[in-house]
Structure formats: C-alpha cells, structure tokens
Design a protein that fits this description.
There is one protein chain. The relative contact order is 0.14. The protein is α+β, with helices and mostly antiparallel strands. The protein has six helices and eleven strands. The chain has a domain at 66-96 and 174-340.
Length: 352
C-alpha cells in the first residue's frame, strides 16, 4: 500500500528564528534613525523657542531703545558694587525678578505681568515677598523650556515662603534659556569663587549685553555687531524638586544669566550659589554622563560662573543679538566662544 505524506502549513523552528533575527536587525537599524529624527524635531522646536524669546527682546528694545534691565536693586551703588542701604551687602537684591518679567508683555504674557503689578509685586524687591511675585514664579511659560529637557513640570522646585505672607512652601519654575553675562563671572571678576572683595563691573567694558544691576544697554552699544554677539544660550538645570541651587533659576536674577568663562558643556566646575546642593546641580550634561561638580560660592551674586549647557548631543543652541539662532558645537575654542560673548571687544573672531 502506498503511503502519502502531507506537509502542514507553518514555519519550522529554524524559519521562525530567522524571521525574528531579521526583524530584530531591522529594528536595530531603524531605531537610531527614529531617535535622530525625534532629536532633530526637538532641536528645531528649541530653536523656535529661542527665536520667539529673541523677538520679544527686540520688541522691547524697539519700544525703549534699550535691552531690559537684568535686575533692579533699590539703593544700588555702582561705585561700591552693592546697595548702600537695606543691608545684605554685595548679595542683596539677587532674588529680585530677572529681565524675564519685563519682556512678558512682548511674549503674549501681559496677563501675568499685570498680575505681578496688581498683586503687590515690586521690581526692586525679592520675588518671594509678594503674591504678585509668587504668581510670576508660578506662571506657565512653556517657551522657556527646551523640549529635550522635558516639560515645565520637570523644572519645578519647592521654595519656603516668608512668614510675612503666610509662610509654608511654594513652587516655582526654572528655565532652560539664559542671557549673556559676558566672559567672566556675574560680577566681572576674572577669578571666580573667591570669598571676599568687591565686584569689578568696570571689567565688563568689553560690552556683554547684560551686566551690572540697574544698568542696561542698547544694541547700538554692541560695536562688534549684533550678528557677532551672543544674546541667549541654553542652560541645563537640575530636575531636583528640593535644594537651593540657582543655576537655571531664570525668574530670579541670581540664576538668569550664563557666562562664557568655560566653553559649552565644559566639565566645570561651575561656581553656583547653593544652600543645599541637589543631585545634578548643573544638569546631567550630555558629554559627562554624571553629576557635575559645582562649588558653593560666598558673595554669590557676583562670583558665579554659569556655563552654557544643553541636553542636545554635541553642543548648545544659542541666540544672537540680531535675532538669529544657531547650534554651536561644544568643541568650539574658548577664545572664539569668549569673543562671541563680548559686544565691544573688537575681536576679529566669529562663531563657526
């Protein structure tokens, strides 16, 4: 009798393993491309944020013929480097609202600005001393966050309130963009982290766009040209909810600027005032992959060094004083980077 063998449909074990291997290979090839496309989209959105912030700054300048004050401090003595009344010495006033408050009406945030004014906010006093100031700190400003960093909720930090307005705790938002404070420290010092001495704002004669308290500059003052001078850069603050590290704390004057003391994404250490150092005080830094060391600084308002940092691979997004934006590699030389941070240094170097 003849025996007939039938082969039923389906894959053998070997065939299944081959198919799985091919699928895994395709995923391995496609995943980096998908991640790169997503990062390119995030970088494009980050650039759009910087362009809109620059537009707000230029609209402010068109009306006032000046860039906004970095910070206003009552009783400030430029010749002394600190305010002459009210106590606090060289540290006084750095918790006052930053330039960001002044450009709110030019970034479609007039309601938040009006709330600050109507609820007791004072440009010359610490932000946390009034309900208007607290609402300014809590107002949602998605434009101030890089999409690679995350959404605004990841930049939230707890803060204690003075008993004069009820005590307890409040939260505020950090920011991912900071303005150019020049190539030295916040106070124009060539050596950061010292524990005594007066600021040297005269050392900022090389015309950083933002310098001393109670003093503002116009774009016409930037004799190197607006297309050769940095206005903004990314910073990458910690996502810790507690602690008092003020790097990237852009609604307060103490954390709203960056310095070109180091090249972008440098290993540091940054010089950052903090009362209790949180993890990743200066952000993770894509080049380093670990916590960055930050040095606690006395007289912190003038001796801080806040480096430009980003979570984008290989560099940072910057905005120039002419309103344009570009990506700057972290391999840029310090000489070129510092030349771009000055508006009146007469350097012939330009950003690549």
């Amino acid at each position: 009798m003849k025996t007939t063998f039938f082969r039923y449909g389906g894959f053998t074990l070997v065939e299944l393993l081959v198919v799985i291997a091919i699928i895994a290979l395709l995923i391995a090839l496609l995943l980096p491309a998908i991640q790169a496309a997503r990062e390119a989209a995030r970088r494009m959105q980050c650039s759009s944020h910087l362009k809109n912030l620059s537009l707000a700054m230029h609209n402010y300048h068109d009306k006032t013929e000046m860039l906004p004050l970095y910070v206003y401090i009552k009783g400030w003595r430029f010749d002394l480097g600190y305010r002459s009344s009210g106590g606090g010495g060289v540290n006084a006033g750095w918790f006052n609202p930053s330039y960001l408050l002044r450009i709110l009406p030019y970034m479609e945030q007039s309601a938040l600005y009006d709330t600050f004014v109507s609820e007791g906010g004072d440009f010359g006093e610490p932000v946390g001393m009034s309900f208007g100031g607290l609402k300014f700190q809590r107002g949602e400003l998605p434009i101030t966050f890089c999409p690679t960093f995350g959404d605004a909720s990841e930049g939230e930090i707890w803060m204690p309130l003075p008993t004069s307005i009820g005590g307890g705790n409040w939260t505020r938002w950090r920011t991912c963009y900071a303005v150019n404070m020049g190539k030295t420290t916040y106070g124009g010092l060539a050596t950061p982290g010292a524990v005594s001495g007066a600021p040297n704002y005269a050392g900022k004669a090389d015309m950083a766009p933002f310098v001393a308290p109670n003093e503002c500059r116009g774009l016409v003052d930037l004799t190197d040209g607006t297309s050769n001078t940095l206005l903004w850069s990314e910073v990458s603050p910690t996502k810790a909810r507690t602690g008092t590290c003020y790097y990237g704390d852009g609604r307060l004057a103490v954390g709203a600027g960056f310095t070109a003391y180091y090249v972008p994404n440098a290993k540091g250490p940054d010089y950052v005032y903090n009362g209790s150092m949180p993890v990743n005080c200066c952000g993770p830094g894509p080049k380093n992959g670990k916590n960055l060391a930050a040095t606690n600084v006395n007289e912190w308002g003038i001796r801080q060094v806040h480096t430009a940092r980003s979570l984008h691979p290989t560099g940072v997004q910057v905005g120039l004083c002419d309103g344009s934006c570009r990506f700057v590699s972290e391999t840029i030389t310090l000489e070129v980077w510092q030349a771009a941070a000055t508006g009146g240094g007469s350097e012939t170097l330009t950003l690549p």
